[in-house]
Specification:
single chain; alpha+beta; Double-stranded beta-helix; 7-stranded mixed sheet; 3-stranded antiparallel sheet; 8 helices; 15 strands; binds N-oxalylglycine; binds manganese (II) ion
């Protein structure tokens, strides 16, 4: 396999690999190492079926089952699309489109779960001709850019992550009572320390507040940190090519969808999510 570095802090591209025909566990270890160091791995030219996608993903750990209220619920796949069964683009007020809008906020997949995911693998099935990039923000680089006094303040802080938090800002009715019931808020460490390449910040759209602080102080602290995320140098913006398969480390980057430009064309992506092994609260380091 051929490897090229992409962004300044994150992203490598792999060519000449067939994920449906991996003979040697060494290849999986090598990809895991690349993911640990560069946080985002793009494998080009993988025209794979859903079963092949699942099989490859399972090399990296057990897969999450898709939560209630999401397309693919109960299976190992999440389906992201902006059109209905008949192939018609759905209106902007449709749940699918609103959920796509929610994906345009920086987030970490399933940070709202007690044991949040380790990585996600997203396969491009149909991509629009303009826009619809997926962007990744290096939370290790953000952490490294913080002033020392701020690093000290946040070192052992814990945050609440709540699925309803970010979604409710998009539309108060987007989160169903069933989702609310299934997904109570959970606590996560703010600074993750178990990656051998350095500490990283664990934030994103599901993060609602800092534990043990009043609303005002919590908002102030989070806003203070968030100013350091506004730096394009820390972002890798992926322009999708047909049959790209992207893997990312949910504990090292935040990611977001970006709008389709011009006329809305069909976009279809399929994702698997590798479950984490420990809660961030109990991570060993
Ligand atoms: C996801 C996601 C962004 C995109 O699959 O988890 O956030 O650009 N996708 O589709
Ligand atoms: Mn996501």
């Amino acid at each position: 396999m051929k490897i090229n570095k992409l962004g300044a802090f994150i992203g490598v591209e792999i060519k000449d690999l067939d994920v449906t025909n991996i003979q040697d566990k060494k290849v999986i270890n090598e990809i895991s190492e690349l993911l640990s160091e560069f946080s985002v791995v793009i494998i080009r030219n993988q025209n794979i079926s859903d079963d092949e996608h699942i099989r490859f993903s399972e090399f990296f750990g057990e897969l999450e089952l898709t939560k209630v209220g999401t397309d693919g619920s109960g299976s190992k796949l999440i389906i992201l699309r902006n059109f209905d069964e008949d192939g018609n683009i759905v209106p902007p007020s449709d749940r699918q489109r609103l959920n796509n809008l929610a994906n345009q906020e920086w987030h970490s997949d399933s940070s709202f779960k007690k044991i949040p995911s380790k990585m996600s693998l997203l396969s491009a099935k149909m991509i629009p001709s303009k826009g619809g990039n997926t962007e990744f923000l290096s939370m290790r680089a953000v952490y490294n850019s913080l002033p020392d006094d701020l690093k000290l303040i946040i070192e052992d802080k814990v945050c609440w992550h709540d699925y309803s938090h970010g979604r409710s800002k998009i539309d108060p009715n987007l989160v169903t009572p069933q989702e609310r019931k299934a997904l109570p808020p959970v606590k996560q460490k703010l600074v993750l320390k178990s990656n051998k390449h350095g500490k990283s910040l664990y934030l994103g759209a599901h993060c609602s507040k800092v534990d043990g602080m009043n609303e005002k102080d919590s908002a102030e602290l989070l806003n203070n940190i968030l100013q350091y995320t506004n730096d394009q140098k820390l972002v890798y913006s992926h322009v999708w090519e047909p049959h790209d398969l992207i893997m990312w480390d949910n504990r090292a980057v935040l990611h977001r969808a970006t709008p389709i430009k011009g006329k809305v064309e069909k976009r279809l992506m399929v994702r698997t999510t590798v479950a984490g092994e420990t809660s961030t609260i109990n991570e060993s380091f």
